[in-house]
Amino acid sequence: MTDRQSRPETHYDVVVAGGGAGGVGAALGAAQAGARVLLVEKYGFLGGAATSSNVLAYCGFFQQGAEPIKAVGGVADLVLDELKALGLDCEPFSSPTTLNWIILLEPEAVKLALDRVLHRHSVDVLLHARVAAATRTADQIEAITIAAMDGRRRVIAEAFVDATGDANLALVAGLPCRTGNDMGHLQAVTGPIRVGGRNKSIPIDRSAIITAFETYNETGAYPSARPDGGIYTEVPRTGDMWWMMYDHALTDLSSESFTEAEQASRAAGYEYVEVLRKHVSGFEDAYLLQTGPQIGIRESRHPPARYELTKEDLLTGRQRSDGVARAAWPIEDHAVPGKPVYESIGGEGFADIPLDCLRAKGIDNLYYAGRTIGADAAAYASIRVMGTAFATGEAAGRAAAN
Ligand SMILES: Cc1cc2nc3c(=O)[nH]c(=O)nc-3n(C[C@H](O)[C@H](O)[C@H](O)COP(=O)(O)OP(=O)(O)OC[C@H]3O[C@@H](n4cnc5c(N)ncnc54)[C@H](O)[C@@H]3O)c2cc1C
Questions:
Q1: 314 in Cβ contact with 385 (< 8 Å)
Q2: pTM to 2 decimals?
Q3: Which of 7, 43, 188, 289 could connect to 337 by a Cys-Cys bridge, CB 3.0–4.6 Å?
């Protein structure tokens, strides 16, 4: 008997593809609405970019301004509570580089907190399980096929949420997806790294980093596009440095392009830490603690939604009666590697995201969460952050459960 023949089909009310902030939000939202929920994640842990790409800060929980005004609560607060129980303070922290309010993360705590919060809400989780195919009628997904360690299995559900970041469920369901912006241009990928072994009693000296990289960039194999020393903070409870210094222009979504980006980013990370060791006080014994597991992907495919949030919606802080989540993070455009451009949200400091951004065009029982939701190129550069992803996830999960 093959693996496939030995497995009965399984039924759920809601299946969520992807276990990042969007997927966890969706699973919790659907479970709170009373649905029987399955979450499917291709890696061996949850967290999405926070745990797979060293993106160690939640953005989008607060509006910009002198004081942190909360824009996202709901199930995201359950996640923060679990993180606090594991010793993270989860207090709003003003990023020294961008002056926006963020919540600093430690990835092992994130993994465990997400396991726990989903378990408490009776969400079934399958790790090492990739959504590989879908069967559908004209306007519904009937079932998905999951490729897992023990072979393939088919799962039927009333509704599905694509929280894969890369619109992988929409893609296998046959929806036509846009790559990048209207011109097919993708935002830069970045290889965030963790640096261990620094002398924590010596503050990180940005001017020394800048000087060291002026020299490195003249002859080094992987010149950094960030002459300002990049974005860095301390990883909570560790003293490690979280550092975003290597950006890479991604030309397309081919495996060849990703392979090149991953390998260049890894090599750059290694060389950059050597630069710190040689030229920056406090880093004499530093070492590259961690890359990845994968490079940080800002943008890939956009599936068709019933409404695309617009730049105008954000710049005017548009509020609307069909709003289900708030976008509060500024437009943070990385069209050119190493040169992010920020534009603030207008109005009262947030814009409403309507439910139609979370609904697939062409499939009635498919919802989007996180960075798959409908948005034009500029609005996408705001809504993709993880705080907002929890909020769109929760709303997608609740809608899918009804
Ligand atoms: C370099 C960089 C820096 C950033 N900085 C910040 C920051 O400081 N703060 C912030 O809030 N945001 C930041 N962002 C943006 C943010 O990390 C992402 O946009 C965010 O993680 C989106 O959440 P998500 O849940 O939609 O997707 P993801 O976090 O990408 O999660 C998607 C999940 O789906 C899984 N998946 C994919 N395909 C499948 C499949 N076929 N089957 C099963 N599972 C699948 C993936 O493994 C992943 O776990 C940054 C992004 C990058 C790249």
A1: no
A2: 0.97
A3: 188
